[in-house]
Amino acid sequence: MAEWEAVIGLEVHVQLQTRSKIFCACSTRFGDPPNTNVCPVCLGLPGALPVLNQAAVEMAMKAALALNCRINRFSRLARKNYFYPDLPKGYQISQYEQPLAEHGYLMVEGPAGPNRASETPAVQKRIGLTRVHLEDDAGKSIHDGFADSARNSYVDLNRSGTPLIEIVSDPDIRSPQEAYDYLTRLKEIMLFLGVSDCNMEEGSLRCDANVSVRPRGAERFGVKIEVKNLNSFRFLKQALEYEIDRQIAALEDGGTLTQETRLWNTDEQRTLGMRTKEFAHDYRYFPEPDLMPLIVSEEWEERVRAGLPELPEARRERFRAQYGLREYDAGVLTVSRPLADYYEEVAGVCGDPRAAANWVQGDLLGALNAAGKDITESTVSAQHLGELVRLIGEGAISGKIAKTVFEKMLAGGQTPQEIIAAEGLAQISDASALEKVVAEVIAASPKQVEQFRAGKQEVLRYFVGQIMKATRGRANPALVNQLLKKHLV
Ligand code: ADP
Ligand code: ZN
Ligand code: MG
Prior knowledge:
- The protein starts with a strand and ends with a helix.
- 39% of the residues lie in helices and 19% in strands.
- The protein has 489 residues and is an alpha+beta fold.
- The structure holds adenosine-5'-diphosphate, zinc ion and magnesium ion.
- Zinc ion binds at residues 21, 24, 26, 38-39, 41-42, 161.
- The site of zinc ion has 8 residues, from helix 1.
């Protein structure tokens, strides 16, 4: 492997979260009964005329700007002709020669980035973006696969006409991990922008990978293989690892590769040939005659740019500077905008950003993961978690008791104060109340008292343990130590 280098470029499709489709007023809702959100335009009936959805254009512009692209003042929609049962028009409306945006880039961590949970600062690497263009999605073919009965195919055209952007990277990616990181960053940015839910299972984020290998140091690229059917981040990485090994093995065997499209087969954990270049489609692109060219004025572009939210990279940087978080923690807490917002609210309420980070990352995300929930579905509000962390800081409860209170908060609704009051969990910091318990414990342990007085310091822990047991963990530890010393010597 040392002598070979992989070259990878990704083509990513992102469904835009507009309410209506890109060329008609039909709803884009996922999961509605098949073929209920359709009209003559998205069914491709003759004579129906498309009208470009402005909201889709703005979302695409947001994405392009966040990806550091240059927006073209003038771009065109074009017909890409091919036949497929889920493509009722017989062509897709896409952009070809003059896309909406070009010449962007995306920064990913180099070999020591936060994804590797490393303490060393990340080396940033720039991945060029060739273009971002607008297009419409096809419908969905559904095949039922009963082995013995006749196989039927169905088509659901609800998705037909959903707005998409295609984001094409330059061949700048050099490893499966880098491809994974690139997609991770890309998804984060889309989520922060709110232009897509990027749900891979529902197909709102889709990725095709182009990969070749070349001798390390060579200038020319090798033969490009396109890999499709990558339905998760993990599959992307696995498929690339497999494909790189396969290509190297073929070349080392003295063979040659032909440009082709292959499919990742999850069951067999390998890629299988689908079509070679000779069978590649000739799409016969031509400008869409039913739509005007897309003109983006400078003012429009500036208006969209001014509305961009703080992006993940900038927010990570601010979390480090403003809250003193480690790079890794800042990375985890900015994975999504709702999570970053949640964290900032907790930090604001408790006034201790580091403690807030620990609670959000550890206890809260742990509980949410276990329940298969998203931060937006958290039963503990940021306000309540912030109050819990504040109570620990104020010494009203111990860190250990706080875990118990948190468990109860997960059931939902109650404030930490309510739970502490109802369960009698408040920390005992009243010296006279504690003194009684200390005296009782000492009286009940003459042997340990003797040991302590003989110089065995470790017995102190035994006494602390007994007092904690007697107070169900509610005794103020500092006060307990102070009182024990007073009464034992
Ligand atoms: P096509 O004309 O087949 O669509 P493009 O040149 O437009 O090919 O590239 C499509 C994708 O493939 C881009 O993401 C690009 O970065 C990537 N790519 C191009 N050439 C190679 C190569 N030799 N090896 C790996 N990826 C490549
Ligand atoms: Zn429609
Ligand atoms: Mg191309």
